[in-house]
Amino acid sequence: MTTSPASFANPDAVARVALNLAEVRRRIRDVGVDPSRVEVVAVTKSFDVATARAARAAGLTTMGENYVDELDDKHRDLDDPAISWHYLGALQSNKIARIVRAADVVSGVSRDKEIRRLASLRPGLTIDIQVDLTGEPRRRGATPDEVVALADLARSEGLDVRGLMTVASPDAARAAQQFARVDLLRRELGLRGCSMGMSDDLELAVAHGSTEIRVGRALFGPRTGPTPLT
Q: For residues 210 and 205, what is the distance between their CA atoms, to the nearest angstrom?
């Protein structure tokens, strides 16, 4: 019998992640939504491999990474077919080939050339289209007016367009409007879900239709060092 790397996770770290996961689910429940209907993506960005092991041992099976090197390292270390790896970061042309070798879902897709490149390397890949409603400089994402054409192109290229992803404004009133707008757009396009909400705004996102939240600090604590849970 092959032993999973997650079985070597630090027991104290596993217990802390499990407690934090229970708290995240309580926060979802307090909004009036069944936690089983909201996928929790454990964002292990800048945390070490030991943290990913602890997350898996605590029962999390969806992991999110923003950096290609970290995605490679953790995907290789855990080597667990039960884990769904989500790539959440920028899609640099020279790194897309590495991303598609490890990621099961590529979120943050927002340009024609990204779609064509992904489709050429991995037909049938599952993607989310990232929408930006903040209008803030340096934010990634397509405008709502661009999303329909991007979804049509991705489908014509043979990709599986799962849903929409967004990062909202830190202002709660604006964020509520943005989450609601993305959910409406998702329903108009007939997509399966919305990846919306992080550690600080997950309640607002869930209340406005999110089917998936991306959380790191709420599960693992502040990103203050290379080995925060070991």
A: 5
Which tens digit of pLDDT belongs to each residue from 4-49? 676 678 899 999 999 999 999 999 999 999 999 999 999 999 999 9
Going by C-alpha positions, the residue among 163, 38, 35, 158 that lies closest to residue 109 is 163
Q: Which residue blocks in 31-162 are alpha helix, DSSP H?
A: 49-57, 68-78, 96-102, 112-121, 144-156
Q: How far apart are CA 134 and CA 140, in angstroms?
A: 10
Residue 109, helix vs strand vs coil: strand
User: 142 phi and psi, to 5 degrees?
Assistant: -85, 160
**How far is it, in rounded angstroms, from Cα 42 to Cα 195?**
13
Distance CA 18, CA 59 (A): 8
CA distance 223 to 217: 7
Give the domains, in start order, of the chain with CATH numbers. 5-220 (3.20.20.10)
**Token pair in block for residue 165:** 């992803």
- Name beta bridge partners: 130: 165
Listed in sequence order, the residues at least 6 apart from 120 whose beta carbon sits closer than 8 Å to its beta carbon are none
* pLDDT tens profile 205-224: 999 999 999 999 999 999 76
What's the distance, CA 216 to chain centroid? Answer: 10
Asked if 194 and 183 touch (Cβ cutoff 8 Å), the reply is: yes
Which H/E stretch holds residue 212?
strand 212-215
